[in-house]
Amino acid sequence: MSNVHVFDHPLIQHKLAVLRDRNTGTKMFRELVSEIAMLMCYEATRDLPLEEVDVETPVAVAHCRHISGKKLAVVPILRAGLGMVDGMVTMMPSVKVGHVGLYRDPETLEPVKYYFKMPPDIAERDAIIVDPMLATGGSAVAAAGFLKEAGVKHIKLMCIIGAPEGVEKVQEAHPDVDIYLAALDDHLNEHGYIVPGLGDAGDRIFGTK
Length: 209
Ligand code: PRP
Ligand code: URA
Description:
Structural class: alpha/beta
Distance between the termini: 38 Å
Helix content: 25-40%
Shape: globular
Bound molecules: 1-O-pyrophosphono-5-O-phosphono-alpha-D-ribofuranose, uracil
Mean pLDDT: 96
Low-confidence stretches: none
Strand content: 25-35%
């Protein structure tokens, strides 16, 4: 069964409170999504393997550790996941980025795929899927499925807000995918929106409503 990690770091929680506010405008919303992604990335990469390395300081040799060349990919689910890419890339400057284009059919709430472009060596990489919202879980389940079809063996899912329904769906479909959240909210409303949530993440990032 996949683990669910909810980050209660004060900086993440403070920024999330501002992000949820209906009066927060597009500029601030974008900045906050990026900053929260950066802080979540820091927490979600705690298990990256390290190896010993000797570094010559101006004074002597220091016995240090650096990340042991693990190959990673960040995979935003378009559109809203794009808002989290900057933060991830700031923390991991040489990470490769693959894109999955999915939108939720407003009637059925089922994900519809319209784009899939991965780094050529994606099968050798661990992937972190990013999307601000995990609602019914349809988009995340589909994205993880496409990555597995492409040969990815280790996948993490990082979302800012999750609903219990979406968490359960991902756990059922992909028990090997660990889930990282800044908040686990209460429920979904009749339109599939997370309550209390933050509204439509894509529209708030891109100013389309
Ligand atoms: C939103 C969100 C997720 C999806 C979550 O995207 O960014 O991708 O809904 O819902 P689910 O868990 O029920 O699948 P949306 O379909 O609104 O597309 P957008 O990012 O292009 O706005
Ligand atoms: N997608 C969003 O952007 N917000 C929700 O609350 C649910 C799905």
